[in-house]
Amino acid sequence: MADPTRVSPSRSRCSTARSAAAARRCERSNDTSPSARTIATPTTSAVQWIYTVHSEGAVVHGRAEDLKLARAYADRYEKAGGPQLPLVKQWVDYLENQGR
Description:
Layout: H1 9-31, H2 36-55, H3 63-79, H4 85-97
């Protein structure tokens, strides 16, 4: 009987690849959402996806570039008055401290 808590390496790579692709889609979405009203959800999603990809041991563009993007999205989110700012800052903090 297979262990339901274990994910096969190929399935994990596929999930990580989908996460990285989703992060890039969020990135494109953020580039086309200039209004403060519409920025909160896509910006949160972009930071969350970057965090998710890194927590799975992968990167979207590279560690430094991903951190730079996450910080920029967090700044935009803060300026837009996003309600989940503490969570967004927690994700960025994880990215900043990763590998230490």
